[in-house]
Structures are given as C-alpha cells and as structure tokens.
Structure to design on (140 residues):
C-alpha cells in the first residue's frame, strides 16, 4: 500500500472516476492491484480516497501521450511541461477508484504522528502509520 500526493484537482478527478491515468516521472515497483491511497495537497491537505493499479506503462513521451491523451485530464502543453527534459515517462492506469465518505486531514495525522510529512511522490505505508490510515479507512 502506497500514499501518493496529488494536486487537489487531479485527486478529485480520480475519485470522481474521470481520470484514468496518473502520470509520473518515476514510480516505485507497483504491481497490478497495488492499493494507492490519495493525499490531496495544498490547500486541501487530506487523504480523500484511493485506487488500485491496473497497469503501469513506461513509454517514450510521444507514445505515452497517445496512450493517455483522453484519460489524463491535462492538455498536451501541460503534459510536455511536466515531462520537460525527460525522454520517457510513466502512466499508472487507474481502476476501482473510491472517494472516502470522510477525509483524513493532515492536522489529524499530525496529532498522532507529529513529524509526518506528505510525500513528494510516493510513500510506502508500513508499521504504525499504515495501521493508523487503514483503521481510519475501515471506520469511515
């Protein structure tokens, strides 16, 4: 199980089922059906939902754009900007997205884990943090 940080716009597109690909410059070794918990960054600053990984694609940018152009919820210009100076990129194909009934806000996480910092990209959840987040999800 991983925690991923996203801009609120893209996080909401995923949990609403609108966005079918999440683009990244780098991804950890994700397997099919890996569970990804979504942290929506500033100004929301909350865990709002999750999705499962269907596939992960690593492709040259022209082929990547052909794959994701209709499902990544961004313009070609935004795509090129994001991948500036890169020859290839990653697309995580999204399935089974869920919006949580209640959000888990950063301030609530820090009440239990004062030093918690949301990841820039991905954070593999383990130990007491994983148990805390899982417990929240199951009780929501």
């Amino acid at each position: 199980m991983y925690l991923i940080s996203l801009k609120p716009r893209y996080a909401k597109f995923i949990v609403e089922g609108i966005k079918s690909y999440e683009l990244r410059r780098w991804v950890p070794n994700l397997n099919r059906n890996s569970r990804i918990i979504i942290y929506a960054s500033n100004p929301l600053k909350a865990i709002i939902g999750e999705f499962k990984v269907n596939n992960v694609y690593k492709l040259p940018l022209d082929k990547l754009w052909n794959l994701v152009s209709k499902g990544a919820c961004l313009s070609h210009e935004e795509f090129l900007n994001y991948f500036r100076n890169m020859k290839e990129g990653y697309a995580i194909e999204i399935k089974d997205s869920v919006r949580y009934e209640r959000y888990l806000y950063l301030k609530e996480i820090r009440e239990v884990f004062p030093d918690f910092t949301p990841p820039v990209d991905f954070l593999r959840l383990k130990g007491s943090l994983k148990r805390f987040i899982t417990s929240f999800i199951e009780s929501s």
Q: What stands out?
A: The longest strand covers residues 88-105. The chain has one domain: 2-124. Strands lie at 2-6, 21-24, 35-40, 46-60, 88-105, 122-124. Helices lie at 8-15, 61-68, 76-82, 106-112, 127-139.
